[in-house]
Amino acid sequence: MFVLAHVSDPxxxxxxxxxxxxxxxxxxxxxxxxxxxxxxxxRAEVLARVVADLEASAPDHIAVTGDLANISLPxxxxxxxxxxxxxxxxxxxxxxxxxxxxxxxGIASHLHSQWGAYIRGDDAKDDTSELEFPLLRRRGPxxxxxxxxxxxxxxxxxxxxxxxxxxxxxxGLLDSCREERRFRVVLIHHPPMSTPRRHFKRLIxxxxxxxxxxxxxxxxxxxxxxxTHSLIYLAGAHRPVPVLGVPSASQASRPGHSPAGYNLCRxxxxxxxxxxxxxxxxxxxxGGTMMEIRRISLG
Length: 299
Ligand SMILES: [Fe+2]
Ligand SMILES: [Fe+2]
Hints:
Blueprint: E1 2-7, H1 26-41, H2 44-56, E2 61-64, H3 77-87, E3 93-95, H4 108-119, E4 135-139, E5 142-146, H5 164-179, E6 183-188, H6 206-216, E7 220-223, E8 230-234, E9 241-245, E10 261-268, E11 275-283, E12 290-297
Parallel strand pairs: 1-2, 2-3, 5-6, 6-7, 7-9
Antiparallel strand pairs: 1-10, 4-5, 8-9, 10-11, 11-12
Helix pairs in contact: 3-4, 5-6
């Protein structure tokens, strides 16, 4: 059995004090928003409890689907790297970025220099100036295929975009990894599909991503961004593809919202006869204890 843990959207705090010159563009509204409400929602002590529970589960690998940062201040990337290092070494932890990690233009060098070891695929050179997506990592029977949907967006928007070239490369990897008879896990920050209410947070080319997955297949898609437990199925070429969302790992318990949590994906079997059990763990509604929220067999 191979156990993949999935954790997302830690929105690490405290937010470093910005220089005045750094408070430009979208960062202004994001900074005000953080100090008005978000610092009360995303709590370091909550995240510490979630991570301690995750570590006690001793997973074989940990997938992190973005939003480590909040407003992409240059000072956010080094503390986030320290958090990743505490979570595990780069061979045990795979990361894809979220929209809060690429909140404004011009921060790609921070992403590359601080987090690159966790984002690069097995065959990627570590001296390239660009991070390449999709990333591909082979771990146990799994093929971890990481996408970047993280792009800067206008104020009050949180949309994502993959681009045609990334989706084309994804299709090729899904085919080659199926031929390797691997359990294909697609990692992405944005959900492939959003409700009309979340239109301003949607993946803009989600329809093209869904078409690629439905045509080329995948065993599992995992995402963050919505900060809630979710499970939908896409129609696959041979079988339905489960798409699994997870709450923010730092979200304090409050009415009407999923408390902080993470998922464990317990995978066994072989190509054509995979079995995958999902164990969702999280804080109780009163925030008092970490507990099993639900257990689902994906068949
Ligand atoms: Fe988030
Ligand atoms: Fe997000």
